[in-house]
Amino acid sequence: MKIKKKIYHYWTFQVWNLEKWEKVFSSINKEKRIINAKNHSAWHLLSTAIKNIGLKEVNPEKGFHFPDWCYVECNWTLEGYKEEILKNLNTELQNLISKKLNIEVDNSNSLSRRVIFEGYEWIGCWWTHVKNISEIWKIEVTKIKVKKWRSKFSYKIL
Ligand SMILES: [Zn+2]
């Protein structure tokens, strides 16, 4: 969390006993972080593509983006023509990536963090993102699963 130009990291200590002012060292796994940023940014991109292909009534609500398991879940039941929607989504995703949209992060408000995909409305989000959507290079929606008023769009970064 970034507050007043300082970045705070929070952990829950379960085993370690630290003394006050004891130095600790931490590091970020750069490779893993880049994959997470791509997978998470792709989640936003797919949510946008779902709207862009005309599924306006669909509201992407949640999802997961682990390295080998990513999806967007919507509060909506898809009826028929899954193959056509899958094809249209993949075409729209590549179209969006080819536009090389910048992603800006606005940290000026300590209570909400705004993420702005160039040309789109801001989204409140605390996750990590790529700086330009072209860094994703290629994303593919692999499966659409429909169950009880919910639709799940699985995807992967290629
Ligand atoms: Zn985000």
Brief account:
By secondary structure, the chain is of the alpha+beta class. It has helices spanning 30-52, 82-98; strands spanning 2-3, 6-7, 60-66, 69-74, 103-106, 114-117, 123-124, 139-147, 150-157.
* The CATH superfamily title: Threonyl-trna Synthetase, Chain A, domain 2
Order of helices and strands: EEHEEHEEEEE
What portion of the residues fall into strands of 2 or more residues?
A: 25-35%
CATH topology: Threonyl-tRNA Synthetase, Chain A, domain 2
According to DSSP, the number of beta strands is 9
Describe the secondary structure blueprint for this structure:
Blueprint: E1 2-3, E2 6-7, H1 30-52, E3 60-66, E4 69-74, H2 82-98, E5 103-106, E6 114-117, E7 123-124, E8 139-147, E9 150-157
Antiparallel strand pairs: 1-2, 3-4, 4-9, 5-6, 6-7, 8-9
Helix pairs in contact: 1-2
The structure holds zinc ion.
Zinc ion is lined by residues 40, 44, 115, 125, 127, 129.
Written account of the structure:
The chain has helices at 30-52, 82-98; strands at 2-3, 6-7, 60-66, 69-74, 103-106, 114-117, 123-124, 139-147, 150-157. It is of the alpha+beta class. The chain has one domain: Threonyl-tRNA Synthetase, Chain A, domain 2 (2-Layer Sandwich). Strands 3-4-9-8 form a four-stranded antiparallel β-sheet, with helices on one face. A hairpin with a 2-residue loop joins strand 1 (2-3) and strand 2 (6-7). The longest helix is centred in the N-terminal third of the chain and has 23 residues, at 30-52. The relative contact order is 0.20. The model has no long low-confidence stretch (mean pLDDT 85).
